[in-house]
Amino acid sequence: MALVSLIGCAASPPVQPEMPEASPAAIAPADPPSDIPPAASNAEAPAAFDVASAASEVDAAIPPVLSGAIAQQPGIQQTILAENLEHPWGIAWLPNGDMLVTERPGRLRIIRNGRLDPTPIPGVPPVLAVGQGGLLDIALHPQFAENRWVYFTYAHGAVDANQTRVARAQFDGTRLTNWTVLFEVNRAKTQGQHFGSRLAWLPDNTLLVSIGDGGNPPVQLDGDLIRNQAQNLNVHLGKIVRLNDDGSIPVDNPFVNTPNAEPSIWSYGHRNIQGLAFDPETQRVWSTEHGSRGGDELNLIAPGKNYGWPVVTFSREYSGGVISSEQSRPGMVDPRLVWTPATAPSGLAIYRGDRFPEWQGKLFAGGLVSQDVRQIEVDEAGRVVNESSIPIGQRVRDVRQGPDGYLYVLTDAPNGRLIRLGASR
């Protein structure tokens, strides 16, 4: 398969794996009661999601672009809005403009009227905050103003037996109540790697959740390297799952009628997705995925598709050895963009605001190792046609478009920042 390179004018950073700072482990107790009243009904039915169209787009024979030296994007203003956030992971906006921010050690913070409240929001149960685990992503229900539901992903369990969970709770402006576990990965793993954990809503009010493959060698499950579970349709590891807003399984999920397959699975063959976003204009789902040593990916996601890990990959072992001799195979979806050296992508936004017309439709992908935000332009067919870098100078954990049309960045550090990006005029 032909490969295309994007060439800019600046050198890429050296290869490094993602190595978040460890936090003390806090083991979650038994779950609180979950017999709560159902969410308030929405008077307006949610829009449909065109499953057939999404699946057909990824079948087009579009070769991956190999990222080369990247030019820096000039004229980007950066305003620090909050500091001293401890390893922040995800951000969500309340209807009044206040912001909820998760901190990986297990706290939910709120920024009210532009100021970080020093007191965490109560109601979050203890989480497993070790390695890459902890309190992770956050998303408000599309009808939050009516039902007050906030959704979370987090690591649960102990160092020798843990998994990613999805829960929701109701937020009254001061505290969380009715914390309810909706989903749990069906096999426990060891150590604190690869929880995945990004959330993205589809227009039909179903929720996509990325689940990591469980970890690097020598971590095993059932006598085999755990990463091979990404190809096993009976296990959630290395998948994107799709849930109804109450945690039940949508009847049109691609493997609902497949014997010995988990019906929640939406796509598979993933390593560790930490960027996931739905574009309402094109109806596309995009993801960014950590490779091992190099081979990080930007993917166009469609239901039922196999994204290859670890059977096909541009990655190498951290030790330098070969993971697979294949980088493409019929029946497996090629990435649209490959980053080698690694950027360690985390956080993804598709700009659809009206404040900066020059950003319209572009993707913005955070980088932990590269310490930047990659601005990615795609054409109508979903081909990557340009890429540039917005240097941040700290590990970028999340990138979101705010309701005001600005882009917002969370940096992953013991004194992490919330930064607002805006193009100079």
Secondary-structure map:
Elements: E1 4-6, H1 51-58, E2 65-67, E3 71-72, E4 76-85, E5 88-93, E6 99-103, E7 107-112, E8 115-116, E9 135-140, H2 144-147, E10 149-158, E11 161-171, E12 176-184, E13 199-201, E14 207-211, E15 220-221, E16 224-225, E17 239-243, E18 265-268, E19 273-279, E20 284-289, E21 296-301, E22 337-339, E23 345-350, E24 363-367, E25 372-378, E26 384-391, E27 396-401, E28 407-411, E29 416-423
Parallel strand pairs: 1-2, 2-22, 3-26
Antiparallel strand pairs: 4-29, 5-6, 6-7, 7-8, 9-10, 10-11, 11-12, 13-14, 14-17, 15-16, 17-18, 19-20, 20-21, 21-22, 23-24, 24-25, 25-26, 27-28, 28-29
Characterise the protein shown here:
It is a single chain. Mean pLDDT is 89; it is low at 1-17 and 19-43. With 425 residues, this protein is mostly beta strands. The protein contains 2 helices and 29 strands.
In short:
With about 425 residues, the protein is mainly β.
Report the helical percentage: under 10%
List low-pLDDT spans: 1-17, 19-43
Distance between the termini: 42 Å
Sum up the overall morphology in one term. Answer: globular
Work out the number of β strands: 29
Primary descriptors:
mainly beta; 425 residues; six-stranded mixed β-sheet; single chain; 29 strands; 3% helix
